């Protein structure tokens, strides 16, 4: 049995090691796994005066588990990315996705490598979208975010990369 803290450390390592994500994706994934992204609940804990509501759906308070991937905007994105890679399940909240990462997708095979890489890509692009809404008042549709993630995943692979064969079988 893991302790919560121990589990976070294991999950963080499993997420980041053997991952073909860009360094900036890994960085955001790392902070998310460590619960150190400045979501609004975190800012409020530090007595900052901010609107608690999630900027993406504008319906419920923003927490890390909501933002990844309970929010209807990010759930749509992550659900479609899961479906694209042939994982036919509903998106889970962040803590559960990390458990999937440590328990079900922890090998070096191409399916698991793709899962971990798409997970940090989704972290990065959802976080970027959230910041664009907050700071630039610009909003993209879920479709555009999904396309961005899939295109970015393709740019991370080389012809000799392990993921190449797996990606060749997927439709984009
Ligand atoms: Zn939301």
Q: What percent of residues are in strands? A: under 5%
Please give the share of residues in helix.
Answer: 55-70%
End-to-end separation in angstroms reads 39 Å
Helix/strand/pairing class, anyone?
mainly alpha
Bound small molecules, deduplicated: zinc ion
Largest sheet: none
Tell me the Rg in angstroms. 16 Å
Return the average pLDDT rounded to an integer. Answer: 90
Number of helices: 9
Overall morphology: globular
Assembly status: single chain
Low-confidence segments, ≥5 residues, pLDDT <50? none
Order of helices and strands: HHHHHHHHH
Total strand count, please? 0
Number of domains: 1
What does this structure look like?
The protein has helices spanning 4-16, 23-33, 40-45, 64-70, 72-84, 94-103, 110-136, 142-155, 163-168. With 172 residues, the chain is mostly helical. The protein has one domain (4-168). Helix 1 (4-16) runs antiparallel to helix 2, helix 1 (4-16) packs across helix 6 (94-103) and helix 7 packs across helix 8 (142-155). The longest helix has 27 residues, at 110-136. The structure holds zinc ion (ZN). Zinc ion (ZN) binds at residues 54, 56-57, 60, 66, 71.
């Amino acid at each position: 049995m893991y302790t919560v803290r121990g589990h976070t450390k294991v999950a963080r390592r499993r997420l980041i090691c053997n991952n073909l994500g860009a360094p900036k994706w890994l960085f955001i994934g790392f902070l998310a796994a460590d619960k150190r992204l400045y979501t609004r609940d975190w800012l409020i804990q530090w007595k900052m005066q901010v609107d608690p509501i999630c900027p993406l759906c504008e319906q419920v308070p923003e927490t890390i588990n909501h933002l990844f991937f309970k929010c209807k905007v990010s759930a749509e994105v992550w659900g479609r990315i899961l479906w694209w890679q042939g994982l036919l399940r509903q998106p889970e909240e962040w803590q559960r996705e990390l458990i999937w990462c440590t328990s079900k997708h922890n090998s070096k095979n191409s399916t698991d490598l793709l899962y971990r890489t798409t997970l940090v890509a989704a972290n990065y692009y959802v976080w970027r979208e959230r910041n664009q809404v907050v700071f630039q008042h610009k909003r993209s549709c879920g479709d555009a975010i999904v396309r961005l993630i899939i295109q970015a995943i393709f740019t991370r692979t080389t012809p000799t990369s392990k993921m190449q064969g797996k990606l060749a079988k997927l439709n984009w």
